[in-house]
Amino acid sequence: xxxxxxxxxxxxxxxxxxxxxxxxxxxxxxxxxxxxxxxxxxxxxxxxxxxxxxxxxxxxxxxxxxxxxxxxxxxxxxxxxxxxxxxxxxxxxxxxxxxxxxxxxxxxxxxxxxxxxxxxxxxxxxxxxxxxxxxx
Length: 136
Description:
Elements: H1 3-14, H2 20-37, H3 47-62, H4 68-93, H5 101-116, H6 120-135
Helix pairs in contact: 1-2, 5-6
């Protein structure tokens, strides 16, 4: 196996990052261009070439679809995946759930007092009143 054949094999492996259709349409052209640009005696792609080929392949794979209906489906799948990911994060985090009514009102009152710089005595009185209202 000659050095050029070995280099071409390495380039073809890096082109696996591209979608199959893209490789079928442009793969031979890309490999030929890369081989023409290679330095004499080069046996492996440079790190920069490998990085650029893989990044270009990922860009080609992540490009949104062309058909409007396919774009709509892709957007819906992305939204559902985001909601499911958020739900899984909450479930796995050990979040105890929302507080009961009295605790929620007390927390909101304390937060309001903190934002408005109300003196401590009035905050305590507002907290007691809000808990009494929440308790019924």
